[in-house]
Design a protein that fits this description.
heterodimer, A: 208 residues, mainly beta, eight-stranded antiparallel sheet, seven-stranded antiparallel sheet, 17 strands, 2% helix, B: 86 residues, alpha+beta, two-stranded antiparallel sheet, 2 helices, 40% strand
């Protein structure tokens, strides 16, 4: 799966599917592109929730940056589509949530699909007017550690997310924020022993 | 496994990224087990959840053990609208 994903490029059309973002997470905190890494293509992510505003710092070479307790989030703005498929993979040794931000309008209005390996729970949460509502959950079994594919899809009024090919799935229908065309990725880190070795990436966003 | 619809109040839970989210109280009282899932079937706007009556409809996919526990729970048994094996 990883090799296949890495071969895609932004704007490339394959079998009716257009790749909007391929982020290999190859940029260091100081802006240096790590040598030898798969190039990142597509728009530059906008760090919406990053507490220090330094940019794409939270995933280095696919490995969580041990920079402290942070709740970073990168948003890829105005992708031109509201119906997309997002795919990444995660390798968990710790307890670091991985979150896809869906149909982001602003920090008070967006959807999120989040997997918490500690509780093995997949959440689909609506944030509207700064009020969070869990619309769907699903609990997996035997997925507290290991490498898994994480994906989500927005299609019309349907929002869905999938962990490890159906080990946990959530789906919900709503027209809220249906026209929003920004998407993103976020992680909740608690660095140290609890999250040692958690790694994510690359992130692929395609249409449809 | 069983698919059931029941009435539950809203509660709150701190979920991923430390955010406090409106959450079905029934899942706080009966935490979901592996393989179980929940979805809101009422579709109330999250910014306009009526505080009174604080009740809405959810659909659960749950084990026999969870269904039995709900049927034995006076807080939820009267609010079970229907159930069916899946």
């Amino acid at each position: 799966m990883t090799m296949h994903l890495a071969s895609l490029g932004a704007g490339k059309k394959t079998s009716g599917t257009t790749t909007l973002v391929h982020d290999a997470f190859n940029t260091a905190a100081n802006g240096t592109v790590l040598s030898g890494e798969t190039p990142t293509t597509g728009p530059t992510p906008h760090p919406v929730f990053n507490p220090d505003g330094t940019g794409e710092f939270f995933i280095l070479n696919g490995t969580a940056d041990p920079g402290g307790n942070q709740f970073p989030c990168d948003i890829y703005q105005s992708l031109g589509q509201s119906d997309v498929t997002m795919t990444s993979f995660a390798h968990w040794n710790g307890d670091c949530d991985l979150t896809f931000i869906l149909r982001f309008q602003d920090v008070n209005n967006y959807w999120s699909a989040s997997y918490d390996p500690g509780s093995e729970t997949l959440y689909l949460i609506e944030t509207l007017a700064a009020s969070n509502t869990t619309r769907a959950t699903s609990v997996a079994s035997g997925h507290t550690s290991g490498s898994y594919t994480f994906s989500s899809q927005t299609s019309g009024t349907t929002l869905s997310a999938n962990m490890d090919s159906g080990a946990a799935t959530v789906s919900y229908s709503s027209s809220d924020l249906q026209s929003a065309q920004s998407f993103g990725i976020a992680a909740a880190f608690n660095f140290g022993a609890a999250s040692g070795g958690d790694a994510f990436g690359p992130l692929i966003i395609t249409h449809p | 496994m069983n698919r059931i619809r029941l009435l539950t109040p809203w509660g709150t839970k701190t979920t991923g990224r430390g955010k406090v989210s409106n959450f079905p109280q029934v899942l706080l009282d009966h935490p979901p087990l592996a393989g179980e899932s929940y979805r809101d079937v009422t579709g109330q706007p999250s910014g306009n959840l009526p505080p009174s009556p604080n009740v809405y409809t959810v659909e659960l996919v749950c084990t026999d053990a969870t269904l039995s526990a709900l049927q034995a729970d006076a807080n939820y048994a009267p609010g079970i609208l229907w159930s069916e094996p899946t």
